Structures are given as structure tokens and as C-alpha cells.
Amino acid sequence: MLTDLHIDEEGEHPLGIDTRSNFIKVLHTSVGSGPDLIVLAGDLCNRVGDEQIYSWVKTQMDATGIPYHCIAGNHDDPRLMCDIFYPAKNTSCDELYYAHHEPFSPLIFLDSSEGSMTETQYQWLSHEISSGGICVTIFMHHPPILAGCKHVEPTYAFTQTERFQLLCGAFPDKSIAIFCGHYHLERTVQMKNQHVYITPSTFIQIHPDFEEFRPQNDLIGYREILINEDKMITNVIYVT
Ligand SMILES: [Fe+2]
User: Fold this and answer.
1) Ligand 1 centroid vs 184 CA: distance in angstroms?
2) What is the pTM of this model?
3) Do 175 and 134 form a contact (C-beta atoms < 8 A)?
4) What mean pLDDT comes out for the span 175-191?
5) CA of 73 to the centre of ligand 1 (A)
6) Contact criterion met (CB below 8 Å) for 22 and 220
7) What is d(CA 91, CA 68) in angstroms, rounded to the nearest whole number?
8) What is the CA(209)–ligand 1 centre distance, in A?
9) CATH architecture classification, 14-239
10) Cα dihedral 239→152→117→134 (10° resolution)
11) In the prediction, which pLDDT does 231 show?
12) For residue 159, is pLDDT > 80?
């Protein structure tokens, strides 16, 4: 899983960072480990959803020859992403959410790009969790619980943490692994039956202990996730 690419228009280097080069470097490292699937977990764009940026990302991903999925972050446009990455869908989607039923665990991809989810999406999510096995795997851009990140959380946190907890609490016998980005750091948070794995960005990391914006430009990485019949193992790999 790669997240928070923050790719800008051609020639633009936000905060002096070549985000396209960073992304390609991390992508090629991750491809080297031979994944079955790659997930891009949102904020593909740096400012707002952009057709040319999505097309560029699609070209890079298609060139890997590895299946991949994309979800939308707060800097993305789910409708544009749907058109470009999922053209087989007949209608444009206002929210880009979907599921894949793998042998050991359903993989559920959510759209939290508004910092919230519609009740329709919650109803769908509830059905997906209830119809799957004991282990549930969710990918969403926003961490659905607070993680102690002083700069990001006061302004940019998911706004429906209680609603999300209510839903997960309805399935106490299920183990729910939730893979997120958004906070630009590595952190794991456990609450009841949920394990939330926050994953570093391919752009910059943000220091969690300061209220002001303190970027850390020297660390980029991705997350490896191994899922088999009876366990899940995950690690963050930093790329130099
Ligand atoms: Fe981001």
C-alpha cells in the first residue's frame, strides 16, 4: 500500500519535493517485493483532483503489470477517479467504494474523501462486514479514530469517529484491520476489535507532536501487508 502521493501539475514541486520521482522510487521498491496487489490509499493529487495527474499515475501503475486499486483522499475527486481508473462502471460514482472477496478476508475499499461517509456507504459497509469472515480488511484514507497527531487532527480528522465506532462495535466477534494514510506518519492504534494501521506518505511525513506544521522531508515509504488463512502481518518499509 502506497499513500499520500500528493502529485502536482507537471513541473510543480510542492515544498521543494519532486513528488513524481518520490512516488516512482517507492513504487519500484514495492514492486520488487512481488506483491499480488497494490493499493493507492488516497491523496494521489496535491491540491484537487486532476485528470492529467490521474492519467499519469495510471500510466505508471499499468506499467507495473500488477493489479492495483485506488481510493480517494481529501485532495481527490472520486468521480474523476472513477472515470479514469474504473471506466467499466457504467455511471459516474459520487462515492468510490467497493469490495473484493478474497479467499481469507474480504477487502473493503471506502471513500472518506469528504472527511465523512454517507449513510448509504455505512449501510453497505455493515452488509459487507456481516457477510464476510472473521477477519475483515478495510482500506480508507482517513483514520477513523484519533491517533494523537497534533497538527493534523484538530482541522483534518475524520468527522464521524463515533458513527464508525458504532458500526464496528456491532461486530465484536470480527477482527477488523483498517489501513489508512492521511496523517503522513507511521502509527498503529488499537481500539476494541479494530487495529488501525496508519501509513507514511511518499511525499513528506508530518511531525505528530507539534501543533504547527513540521514536515519531515527525509522519510518516504510504503506498507507491506501479508494476509493468509490465519494471520495478517504488516510492516512499513522506508525507502532511501
Ligand atoms: Fe495527504
Assistant:
1) 6
2) 0.96
3) yes
4) 96
5) 7
6) yes
7) 21
8) 17
9) 4-Layer Sandwich (3.60)
10) 50
11) 83
12) yes
